[in-house]
Design a protein that fits this description.
The structure is a single chain. With 406 residues, this protein is of the alpha/beta class. Helix content is 38%, strand content 16%. The chain is built from 15 helices and 14 strands. Strand 3, helix 5 and strand 4 form a beta-alpha-beta unit. Helix 1 packs parallel to helix 14. It is globular, with a radius of gyration of 21 Å. The structure holds pyridoxal-5'-phosphate (PLP). Pyridoxal-5'-phosphate binds next to helix 4. The site of pyridoxal-5'-phosphate (PLP) has 13 residues, from helix 4.
Length: 406
C-alpha cells in the first residue's frame, strides 16, 4: 500500500517566516559540524550581553509562588495598571485598564488581533519592508496582506500616495511599525497624521506596533499613534522583549484605544481568543510593573556613548564603507536595512546570496525578501554585537562582496 504523506495544512500555503527559515537551517548544520557561525540575524539582545536589569529578574523570582495558577485572561491587574499609567503618560486617548490585554509576547497579540478580525479575502495594509509576522498572521487568518511601500529616499517613511492607491472596499486595517523593523525609521507627526486621515476616510483600524518605542537615537522622537486622535480604533502593541531585553520572558500586550462603539463585536472576538489561551505566562506579568515603573536603563544605552548608540554608529559606518553597499542611518530599533548596488552585484536570488555567505564566511544575515521587500537587493543586519564582533562580521561581509556576483 502506498504510504500516505502527512502534509501541512492549506492554511500555511502562503505563510512564511524566513527570519528563521532555510538560511538559518544551513547555518545550524554548519554549527552541528563543529564550525562557529556569527549570527546577526535575530533581534535578541541577551546573547549579545544586553541583559535585562537584575531587579527585573528578581521581580520574576520573588513572584514565582504567586505565578503558579492561571490568572485573569487579560492579565494581572498590577501589570495592566502599569501599562495604563504609561499609556496615559504618553497621551493615549480613551483607554481604561480593561482595554489592555497581556500576551505571550507581541507575537501572540498579533496572531490574536488578525484571527479575530479577518474573513477570507479581507485585506490588511502592511508595510513593505515589514516585520514578517504581520504578513504571515494576516495570511494565516485568511486575509490578504497588501504591501504599501516605505520610501528609502525619504528616510524609509511610508509612501502615503501608495497607501491611498491600495485601499479597496475590502481593506479592514493598516499596520504601522514605528520605530520600524527592519528599516530603523521613526515616523514624523505629519506622516502619522496623514495615515490617520486615510484611516478616518476609509474606516480602517490602525494596528501600531511600537515595541521599539524607547530605542531611539540622536534627536529622534517617538509619537504614539494612539495619542494623535480619539476617533479611530487604534490597537497598539508593546512588550518587554526589546527595551527591557527580556525576549525570552515572552511578555507583550495590546492597548485598545480611541473609538470603540462601532467595534464591540470585534472586541468580543479578541476577548474570546484571549480566553481560549486561558491567560498569558504569569511569571513575566509580575515583571511588567517593575519594568515600566522603575527601569529607564534603555535611555542610557541609546545615547551616543551608550552600548546601543555606539553599535548603531559602527554598523552604519562599516556598511557604508563596503563598496556597492549603502544604508540609511537608523533612528530607532536595532537594525540596519542595507541596499546592494545591483549594477555591481546583479543579485537575482537574495536567499541564495545569504546561503553563499553562510557557507563561505560563516556568518548569518537575513535577506530583504524575507521582510516582504519586493526586490532581491537588500539585507538586514542586527547591530546588537559589540564593536569588535561587528567589525569582524562586517569585515567578512566585505571580503564576501568583493567578488560575489550573480
Ligand atoms: N514586532 C516587531 C516589530 C518585532 O521586531 C518583533 C520581534 O522582533 C515582535 C513584534 C515580536 O515581539 P515579541 O518578542 O514581543 O513577541
Amino acid at each position: 500500500m502506498k504510504e500516505k504523506t502527512i502534509d501541512k495544512s492549506n492554511k500555511l500555503h502562503h505563510v512564511c517566516y524566513d527570519i528563521r527559515g532555510p538560511v538559518l537551517e544551513a547555518a545550524n548544520a554548519i554549527e552541528a559540524a563543529g564550525q562557529k557561525i556569527l549570527k546577526l540575524n535575530i533581534g535578541n539582545p541577551a546573547p549579545f550581553g544586553l541583559y535585562g536589569e537584575e531587579h527585573l529578574r528578581q521581580a520574576l523570582i520573588e513572584n514565582l509562588h504567586a505565578a503558579q495558577g492561571y490568572g485573569e485572561t487579560k492579565g494581572i491587574l498590577a501589570a495592566r495598571e502599569a501599562i495604563y499609567t504609561e499609556n496615559q503618560r504618553n497621551g493615549f486617548q480613551n483607554i481604561s485598564v480593561d482595554d489592555i490585554i497581556l500576551g505571550n509576547g507581541v507575537s501572540e497579540m498579533i496572531m490574536i488581533a488578525m484571527q479575530a478580525l479577518l474573513n477570507n479575502g479581507d485585506e490588511m495594509l502592511v508595510p513593505m519592508p515589514d516585520y514578517p509576522l504581520w504578513t504571515a498572521a494576516t495570511r494565516l487568518a485568511g486575509g490578504t496582506a497588501v504591501h504599501y511601500r516605505c520610501d528609502e529616499d525619504n528616510d524609509w517613511n511610508p509612501d502615503i500616495e501608495d497607501i491611498r492607491a491600495k485601499i479597496t472596499d475590502n481593506t479592514k486595517g493598516i499596520v504601522i511599525i514605528n520605530p520600524n523593523n527592519p528599516t530603523g525609521s521613526v515616523y514624523s507627526r505629519e506622516t502619522l497624521l496623514e495615515i490617520a486621515e486615510l484611516a478616518r476616510e476609509n474606516n480602517l483600524i490602525v494596528f501600531s506596533d511600537e515595541i521599539y518605542d524607547k530605542i531611539l537615537y540622536d534627536d529622534a522622537k517617538h509619537i504614539p499613534f494612539a495619542s494623535l486622535q480619539d476617533d479611530l480604533l487604534v490597537i497598539t502593541m508593546n512588550g518587554l522583549s526589546k527595551a527591557y531585553r527580556l525576549a525570552g520572558f515572552r511578555s507583550g500586550w495590546m492597548t485598545i484605544s480611541g473609538r470603540k462603539t462601532h467595534a464591540k463585536d470585534y472586541l468580543t472576538g479578541l476577548n474570546m481568543l484571549a480566553s481560549m489561551r486561558l491567560c498569558a505566562n504569569m511569571q513575566a506579568q509580575f515583571v511588567v510593573p517593575e519594568a515600566l515603573n522603575h527601569d529607564k536603563t534603555i535611555y542610557d544605552l541609546t545615547l551616543p556613548t551608550g552600548r546601543l548608540g555606539q553599535r548603531r554608529d559602527v554598523a552604519h559606518r562599516l556598511l557604508n564603507e563596503i563598496e556597492g553597499v549603502s544604508c540609511v542611518q537608523p533612528k530607532g530599533a536595532i537594525y540596519c536595512f542595507a541596499k546592494l548596488d545591483q549594477s555591481k552585484f546583479n543579485i537575482q536570488d537574495d536567499e541564495k546570496m545569504m546561503l553563499d555567505l553562510v557557507t563561505q564566511q560563516h556568518m548569518l544575515l537575513v535577506q530583504g525578501t524575507a521582510f516582504n521587500w519586493d526586490k532581491p537587493d537588500h539585507f538586514r543586519v542586527v547591530f546588537l554585537p559589540d564593536a569588535e564582533l561587528m567589525t569582524e562580521a562586517l569585515g567578512r561581509l566585505k571580503v564576501f562582496l568583493a567578488d560575489y556576483r550573480q
